[in-house]
Amino acid sequence: QQQVRQSPQSLTVWEGETAILNCSYEDSTFDYFPWYWQFPRESPALLIAIRPVSNKKEDGRFTIFFNKREKKLSLHITDSQPGDSATYFCAASEDYNQGKLIFGQGTKLSIKP
Amino acid sequence: GGIITQTPKFLIGQEGQKLTLKCQQNFNHDTMYWYRQDSGKGLRLIYYSITENDLQKGDLSEGYDASREKKSSFSLTVTSAQKNEMAVFLCASTRDNNQDTQYFGPGTRLLVL
């Protein structure tokens, strides 16, 4: 059973447009949602994270929107740049579960110049 | 700052062979993780360890053993390599067993002939 789902599997947008990556989860006890990005031939690295006390987290051009009732979140990348081309993973964890992250399958984002 | 090193970078094995992957971190982090990443898929947790000599199973532990010999190192053993298996094994660490940033190593690429 896939506890964290991402869509679309791949996404292509033009430079300067807003890319929207979606994530949904099953378990209502999840209370921490980091997004990791992974460039080709590199390892994942933390991009931005949110906890359910907020419904929005912003860091520059990257914003997470969180809907606790629907168990959905999305990552918005405004003014997309070719350097944003990467695979983005949504993940989730529970406070008492020793930092164990459940990762989604990822969205491969390509930005066309 | 710190770094995670994984050895070897590439590993070619034979079907049925026992293979060992090693991970070292100098962050002085308490918790370490082993993930498997298959092409086009997310990261799946194999084993993790919250302190020296501790071992906890992840969702994908069958077919693997692990060992946390000391705080800075965490080893993973593929007990019997499967023919045509191809994956990247990623080691990660966090400061403690809370919901902290996970830092990833460069990975070991496994190919079983």
Would you count the extended β strands of chain A for me? 11
- Whole-number count of domains of chain A: 1
Parts with pLDDT < 50 across at least 5 consecutive residues of chain B: none
Largest sheet of chain B: 7 strands, mixed
Oligomer: heterodimer
Q: In words, what does this structure look like?
A:
The complex is a heterodimer of chains A (113) and B (113). Chain A has 113 residues and is mainly beta. Chain A contains no helices and 11 strands. In chain A, the strands form 2 sheets. In chain A, strands 2, 4, 5, 9, 10 and 11 form a 6-stranded mixed β-sheet that branches. Chain A has a 5-stranded antiparallel β-sheet with strand order 1-3-8-7-6, with no helix packed on it. In chain A, 32% of the residues are buried. Chain B has 113 residues and is mostly beta strands. Chain B has one domain: Immunoglobulins (Immunoglobulin-like), CATH 2.60.40. Chain B contains no helices and 11 strands. Chain B has strands spanning 4-7, 10-13, 19-25, 31-37, 43-49, 56-57, 64-70, 73-78, 86-94, 103-104, 108-112. In chain B, strands 2, 4, 5, 6, 9, 10 and 11 form a 7-stranded mixed β-sheet that branches. In chain B, a hairpin with an 8-residue loop joins strand 9 (86-94) and strand 10. In chain B, 36% of the residues are buried. Chains A and B meet through strand 10 of A and strand 5 and strand 10 of B.
